[in-house]
Amino acid sequence: MIESFLAQRRWFGGKGRTFSVTGTRELGRFGAAPEVVVLLVEVSYDGTGDRELYQLPLAVYDEPQERLDHALVGRWPIDAVEDGAFAYDAVHDRAATAHYLQAFATPPASGIRFVRLPGHDLDLTAHGTPFSGEQSNSSVLFGEDSVLKLFRKVTPGENPDITTHQVLTEAGSTHVAQLYGWVEADDLHLGMLQQFLRTASDGWDIALASVRDLFAEADLHAEEVGGDFASEAARLGLALAEVHEQLRASFGVGTVTGASLADAMSGRLTAAVAVVPELGQYAERAAARFDALASLESVPVQRIHGDLHLGQTLRTVLGWKLVDFEGEPAKPLAERLLPDSPWRDVAGMLRSFDYAPFAVAEAMPEDDPDVLHQRSVRADEWARRNRKAFLASYCGEAGLSDTDRTLLTAYVIDKAVYECVYEARNRPTWLPIPLAGVARLTAD
Ligand SMILES: Nc1ncnc2c1ncn2[C@@H]1O[C@H](COP(=O)(O)OP(=O)(O)O)[C@@H](O)[C@H]1O
Ligand SMILES: O=P(O)(O)O[C@H]1O[C@H](CO)[C@@H](O[C@H]2O[C@H](CO)[C@@H](O)[C@H](O)[C@H]2O)[C@H](O)[C@H]1O
User: Fold this and answer.
1) Ligand 2: which residue has its CA nearest to atom 23?
2) How does it assemble (predicted)?
């Protein structure tokens, strides 16, 4: 029963693999009519020994609720066959999400703890609406006041999305949505409540619109077109520099050897070649870039975003905000919590500027070789211009030292290699984007 429900959810990471539910545990319950029951579900992947934990908040009703048919998980208790109550995914039920909001104001006596930070009067009258965009977790918007993100795949221990937002909120950062509180049970972080950014537009969407404007004006250069993105790219660079500075001040700085970073990158490259054999032709030249990194004795590391790209940035009337500090979802939590070089985040953004023109071109099929040539020149120009604006602004007056350049080059290659595997598995028609990136980055 739960298996078929999971298999159809966008947020379930085990789609396409053979799995079964090997355990369920009730973490706590609160509210009435419906009662919200928070279930922890253990998923095991056949023949691999891999196991994952998923959070399933349920709205439990005595009678079937037709309006929630699409969110039916099954009968409750879960092993009741015919005479049990009815359990629905709580995220989709306005009455259940109202219990969540109320619980932040009046914490219930329950295994589920609701922690609230001072400084914001919650609008307790706001209705909960499930977020309809693409995401790996499940968010509920409470009017124009707050957003509750419930984590789906959970791991015991600290969730960096909460702890990083907490530190940045307390430091007064203007580049994140303020953290209002979080939900936890045992040693699990289950969700977080944040400021709703009412005037936000997705950075990826704005970048695509800018490229479309450029392609529509074949004779003009990027800087001559109305939708030029370079000043936004520069503001993003400054925002990231400020966030990194605040994270350094709050979490501190450590050091690691360049050799340890280079080893990890080489290992990831070897694993990636096994998935994307076309990468093999660039392996030797990529290794030379990693060797340069290995020669650095000491590399500063700190808390970073960990998975930064244009889709993790929001432009509001008050400037750029960064969202989703959870790190790369595929990495184990322990790895995501390790301090890393801030150049990883810079590299993620630089790669995103390469992606945008290709994504637009892919959505505008064209046979005329002249138009195609013109577009490819413009695409290159757009990416180059925005990479340059972002980087110049991130580095500020200090500019880019030789050591910075060595680090950045290695991190950008590492990210493009990661993207090759990501695209091969998720969007094979987009594989040429990161492959072209690896080719360019490793060219002499
Ligand atoms: N505080 C916020 N206010 C408004 N929209 C937000 C906020 N935080 C995130 N979003 C939107 O929700 C999307 C998903 O959020 P994100 O934190 O990336 O979720 P996930 O971890 O599930 O991928 C973002 O791409 C952004 O468009
Ligand atoms: O946002 P997620 O944490 O789920 O990140 C994963 O998916 C991203 C795609 O949605 C992927 O990003 C890649 O594609 C983006 C365009 O869709 C592009 O802007 C990024 O630069 C590129 O890396 C990300 O790598 C992956 O981890």
Assistant:
1) 419
2) Monomer.
